[in-house]
Write a structure and sequence with these properties.
Layout (H helix, E strand, L loop, with lengths): L8 H13 L3 E3 L1 H7 L9 E8 L6 H11 L4 E4 L10 H12 L3 E7 L2 H4 L4 H16 L5 E5 L20 E2 L3 H4 L3 E4 L10 H6 L4 E6 L14
Parallel strand pairs: 1-2, 2-3, 2-8, 3-4, 4-5, 5-6, 7-8
């Protein structure tokens, strides 16, 4: 493995290759929800989650690596971010991710409705419909953007109201398995590679593509 750890795409690739060598299975998040009750308790599993906050093009760096390694992931698309998912090139990127076999979810801006005095549940349904029409598939999961600072959030008990299978901050992902995140370009409990090297049984790994670079962080600014 790389030493020291970094947010280079090279290190990301090597971490995934190490995981494959250690016998990990990779599942999309909705696959885990559907299969969790029947999964062999000794099976080592990784769920890769990408929250696309700022730049959709940077997601292609991950897509290339995961496609080459034949590893599925779950990409959460933000409709109210700085990129426009309906712009031609972005629309193509989202469909390309989906058509490659990865899962698309909604990166939900929880308080967006409040800024415009709109009804939050209605706007969420509207956003889900837009994203579903882009990929021509149901959206089964959401991840909240800045959940700790938001007033409106969808908990597990409310999933049925929106025809969702899961929300990414459920205890199923945060407590039943080891959840690690690169938020603010910092692994708070150690790099993903350390958990892979230690063969942690179940891992949910959240990345934000903005922090990961080919050669230098300057390439993303």
């Amino acid at each position: 493995m790389d030493n020291p750890c970094s947010f280079s795409l090279k290190h990301y690739r090597r971490s995934l290759e190490e995981a494959q060598g250690n016998g990990y299975s990779f599942l999309k998040m909705h696959e885990y929800i559907a299969q969790r009750r029947t999964i062999d308790p000794n099976r080592k599993i990784i769920l890769i989650r990408h929250d696309i906050d700022l730049d959709l093009d940077l997601a292609l760096n991950f897509l290339e690596i995961e496609n080459e390694l034949e590893i599925p992931a779950t990409y959460f698309i933000r409709l109210h971010g700085k990129y426009n998912p309906l712009f031609y090139t972005n629309y193509k990127v989202i469909r390309r991710i989906s058509e490659a076999g990865h899962e698309i979810g909604l990166h939900h801006d929880c308080d967006f409705a409040a800024l415009f005095e709109k009804e939050a549940e209605s706007l969420l349904r509207h956003d889900l419909e837009i994203l579903q029409k882009i990929i021509d598939k149901p959206i089964l999961g959401i991840s909240s953007h800045e959940p700790n600072q938001s007033r409106f959030k969808v908990g597990d008990e409310a999933l049925g109201k929106f025809n969702l299978a899961y929300q990414a901050y459920s205890p199923l992902f945060l407590e039943e398995m080891k959840y690690i995140s690169d938020s603010s370009s910092r692994w708070r409990e150690g790099c993903m590679c350390q958990f892979i090297e230690n063969k942690t049984k179940r891992l949910c790994i959240l990345t934000h593509p903005f922090w990961w670079y080919p050669q230098s962080p300057l390439q993303n600014h």
